[in-house]
Sequence to fold (449 residues):
Amino acid sequence: MIPAAFDYHAPGSLAEAIELLGRYGDAKVLSGGQSLLPLLKLRLGSAGHLIDINRVPGLEYIKEEGGFLKIGGRTRESALEGSDLIHDKYPILADTARVIADPIVRNLATIGGNLAHGDPANDHPATMLAVGAVVVATGKKGERTIPIDAFFTGLFETALGKDEILTEIRIPAAAPKSGGAYMKFERKVGDFATAGAAAQVTLGAGGEIAKAGIGLTNAGLTPLRAAEAEKFLQGKRPDAATLAQAAKLAGAASDPSADRRGAVEYKKEMARVLTARALKKAVERAQGA
Amino acid sequence: MGQHHIQITVNGASREGDVESRTLLVHFLRESLRLTGTHIGCDTSHCGACTVLLDGTPVKSCTVLAVQADGRKVMTVEGLEQGGKLDPIQEGFFQEHGLQCGYCTPGMMMTSYALLKANSAPSELEIRQAISGNLCRCTGYVNIIKSVQHAAQAMAATGK
Fold:
């Protein structure tokens, strides 16, 4: 399969990339290309121009700064997987990166692309909802930040402007007594999730849940926040019955469609089970943190 | 639309050509350079038959544009053999019967070659995880894993 014809541009700077995006109305950003190129080959989408940002310096980094974990938009999934900082302090991100596609795809696939694609079947969105991330978009007028809750506006649609590039993801720095986990159920390596759940919890001084974030993968037209389950957990002790009830609320909130991965009822049940597992692991990690 | 003159160092030799923007790396390798050892399998980045090394990193060449490789280094299965001598990974697949139809083999070997460069003594689990983006539809993976282990042992024995 060969994509329909397009023109290719490889700018050497961010400013040039943004200028090109603004100049062409039908341009797409080529980051890892692991979603975009298959989509163009399968003719599920089209673009007149691809703006390849792989020659733009300074877009791949993982660092803690100013109370945030900052990840450059073009950071490869394989870099997240291989990062000691991620493994030690943000294991939910390691959980997520290592179940995306397969190891070869992850050598090119990027975290920014995973979010900017706006696919509810992608894995990072649920995790970003759980941890309360902020997305940095850079355009002609400079940088602006978009809270993750305002980022996913529809199926394959995001709040990014036509001439904006997702340049950074900011995650609140790991707090004491906090922990998170991502659980994905897939038919085989490389498949999209039948269901997936991300959970992030912060425990209070008495061991109660001070704050909980839960995101669901492939549970609707956009990545889904299980807000009712989060609210239910607030202030409660993380015992088995409480976590089970929260998982039940998350399962009920999920709104998947039937496909070859399963029926609606089955997927909702899997969302419940995976939320329960993610919460359990998140609490264990928070207690150990 | 969009023509580009590209130069890629393929298996150590500089190669040049003219490509359309949309030309995929695998097509440039197979059709322009006639390096047909790299196979096209699923064509949707699932099977890994088209795996090559781009600056030493395994990538699926059906999901990379040829123009993206401009100025970079590509290694294909044809680059494994050196001076008439099989690479240990090729020897391993030969000795341990790591293939039947051979379709997945170039991709399997390139992924395994990169694994052994990074980790000279991988565990069975590490081998299984490394090749989890390469599909074999003949026999399963037991002999493929033995082949990679054979190569690792041979490399350890010769200090390579």
Residues 88-158 of chain B form a domain with the DNA polymerase; domain 1 fold (CATH 1.10.150.120). The longest strand of chain B covers residues 3-10. Chain B has a mean pLDDT of 96.
